[in-house]
Write a structure and sequence with these properties.
246 residues; elongated
């Protein structure tokens, strides 16, 4: 069964990236603008079939009215295998930089985290099959095309994946607000590294915590003592970027 991607920027990124294969471009009939015309030109270059549909037909397929006049029909999402992810990293000769997500179930948070991970230069994001949000059109729209460039790996056992990363020489740090966690900005985050981010409500599960090499906390200056999961992930990701750019 094929999926539909909506929104002009995500569709543009899908054309540019190396993710799943575009099958057909669906465009609103009777309405034109430069950005839609550019998508049509790109589809013609790729020799994709182009269909013109009414606004109501696009809304029916998208499930809402926020499609911006275009849908891209794609092959089903194909997760990367963990073994392949690690092999590709080793072949690259680059420093490891991975992100693991433990129980992120909100599609907007998931998409925002994927977007931050891609922009920060992560080599891949790893999620568990259970207790995780699937890749949906909302996730892809929020990710703004990140999945066209970012490897997303799905594993049966997240703690086992952490152990595999550690065996490969990757340090794994979990984000947590515990008193015994080290402050994010005081820890050396250079070299082969993976960050582990927990769920929106409960954070990291105890079993995941104990497999991490260490726990990191983001210092809070206000009265509210927690951050949205996607914001916390973004702060930590770009602290790694900052340290490695010094």
């Amino acid at each position: 069964m094929a999926d539909y991607l909506y929104g002009i920027n995500p569709i543009h990124e899908a054309f540019q990236g190396e993710g799943r294969k575009p099958l057909e471009l669906l465009v609103i009939s009777g309405e034109r603008n430069d950005r839609l015309d550019e998508l049509v030109a790109q589809a013609k270059q790729r020799q994709l079939q182009i269909k013109y549909l009414s606004r109501s037909e696009l809304e029916r397929l998208a499930g809402h009215a926020h499609h911006q006049g275009a849908l891209l029909k794609l092959t089903p999402f194909n997760y990367t295998d963990l073994t392949a992810l690690l092999q590709n990293w080793r072949k690259s000769g680059q420093v490891a930089f991975f992100l693991l997500l433990d129980g992120i179930t909100d599609p907007h948070n998931f998409g925002a985290i994927l977007r931050s991970a891609e922009v920060a230069g992560c080599r891949g994001v790893i999620v568990a099959k259970d207790r995780s949000c699937p890749v949906t059109s909302v996730v892809e729209k929020t990710a703004s095309g990140a999945l066209s460039h970012l490897a997303l790996c799905q594993v049966t056992n997240l703690s086992r994946a952490i152990e595999e990363l550690k065996s490969a020489g990757v340090w794994c740090y979990g984000l947590a607000g515990d008193e015994d966690a080290q402050e994010l900005f005081s820890v050396d985050l250079k070299g082969n590294l993976a960050l582990v981010v927990g769920s929106e409500g409960k954070g990291l599960r105890p079993n995941i915590r104990k497999h991490c090499d260490g726990l990191l906390s983001i210092p809070m200056a206000g009265q509210v003592n927690s951050l949205n999961a996607s914001v916390a992930a973004g702060v930590a990701l770009f602290e790694v970027v900052r340290q490695n750019s010094l």
